[in-house]
Amino acid sequence: MMKRSVLLLVSITIISLGSYSFKSDGFEIAKQIEIFVAFFKQLNTNYVDETNPAELMDTAMKAITKDLDPYTKFWTEQDVEAGKIRSSGKYVGIGASLFTDDIDEEETGSKLIVSEVYKDFPADKSGLKAGDEIIKVDDVVVSNYEGRPIELLKGEAGSTVVVTYIRNGKEQITSINRNLIEVDAVPFYKLLNDNTGYIVLRRFSKKASSNIIAALKELKAEGADKLILDLRGNPGGLLTEAVNVCNIFVKKDLQIVHTESVIDDHKKQYKTKNKVLYKDLPLAVLINGRSASASEIVSGSMQDLDRGVVIGARSFGKGLVQSKRPLKHNTQLKITTSRYFIPSGRCIQSLDYWNRDSDDKPTRIQDSDFKSFKTQNGRTVYDGGGVFPDVEIETTKTSQIAKALLKDRVIFDFATAFYYKHKFERLEDFTFTDVDYTSFLSFLKKNKFEFKTKTGQLLEDLWVVAEKETLDNRISNEYNSLKQRLSEAKKEALVSQESEIKELLKKEIIKRYFYREGMHAYEVSNSEEVREAQKILADITRYNKILGN
Fold this sequence. Notes:
Blueprint: H1 2-19, H2 26-46, H3 53-66, E1 73-75, H4 77-88, E2 90-93, E3 96-100, E4 112-117, H5 122-126, E5 133-137, E6 140-141, E7 160-167, E8 170-177, E9 179-182, E10 188-191, E11 196-200, H6 208-222, E12 226-230, H7 239-247, E13 255-260, E14 269-271, E15 283-287, H8 294-304, E16 309-312, E17 320-326, E18 332-341, E19 351-356, E20 362-364, E21 372-374, E22 380-382, E23 391-392, H9 400-407, H10 410-419, H11 434-446, H12 454-468, H13 472-496, H14 498-526, H15 528-538, H16 540-546
Parallel strand pairs: 11-12, 12-15, 15-16, 16-23
Antiparallel strand pairs: 1-18, 2-9, 3-4, 4-5, 5-6, 5-7, 7-8, 10-11, 13-14, 13-18, 17-18, 19-20, 21-22
């Protein structure tokens, strides 16, 4: 069976080669594919144990893309379906976000944990809550499932799935009726007390611009005469929707983005297509280190065109454009095809995946290598490092300790424990005290949280080398001293970054009681970025001065 599969693969590959249109280096490509086919055939035919050709090929394709950039990937049928969901905002499911115990993007871990339930959707109505560990879906035990456990919850609209889960150590069962789920691109908007409209844009799905327009119309009817567009934490989405969102605030036929590539077909211009709706509405755009891609097109374009004040922290820095190329059997290649450039002519890509360091990690473009560009009004802006805000808010930045706490999901786990120990009926009654923060520190100690730093890793590497060179006895005192100082510095970080960590804890906890809407309502009243945006929008002289008017 295996050998027939190999022969079939070889035949398909040769047939494909016959119809393939190569670039100028076509001979070299053909040569290498021929070598690969021969290698693959010999490996499968002569290896000591039975092999799985499909798994080997999947591994090979992933390895091929690994050294390029993290956005160029082979997509399975499930990946293709997930991509459609992200771009449309619609899917059939239970209305919840889930993660596995694996922290990578493959989502193949043996545990399936609810990270968030959406208000009034099936999972919420069935009683599921964030922190619940799903151990069985119908008759399938999650830990025994070889595929992605999230796939088990998918099915036809109207069908029922029985879920067994663990909450606080107790096993429970519930039935969930799957339904069409449509996640709003705009999950929250509100008129603030100074007639400032406030809109949160979660993702640039197909309805992003239309959702903003609908929210703005309602806010304008209520008296809004200025706007805060919150793109913090927005990872991006459709490039065309980024252009459409810009078009709400700038005139028709204005070039927002152009793309550059070695392939002529990927060199494109993206212009606004519609009549501007709110040309003179004072605008502030909020960004942070997790605002990426389409978020950077909007914030960077508003900055380049001097159309709005950008507030917060430096954005992620993703200036690469991906396209999807269909392959056989409903699979796809998601491939980086070009770099995008915003109105001033700058590209904000911050990581160089083609020039890596000694650890094979992409290098960050250095400040000294940034090139300067001019906005429409002549202000100086820079490329190479994301979008730098016009007004920087120190608290918007995410510290290394905070990143570690989020990555290891200890903030999530503490929020779960907190939720079952405290009751709050109204958002106005919610409190998180110094005593609660002390409990969090005890929770970290109990769960043996390790805050890994680059300095710590280098110190460990030094000790390994010292042992090999039999120098460990000579430097052991210095090594232990540095190790102790590093440990103390880590503890100090939990004190020095207390305010930042508290805010992360509060938002995660509030989400448990009052859903995402409650979290955004809390941010409106407590965010330094929102307060600063309101001050700037209320002071038209300062607003115009920042924009160079």
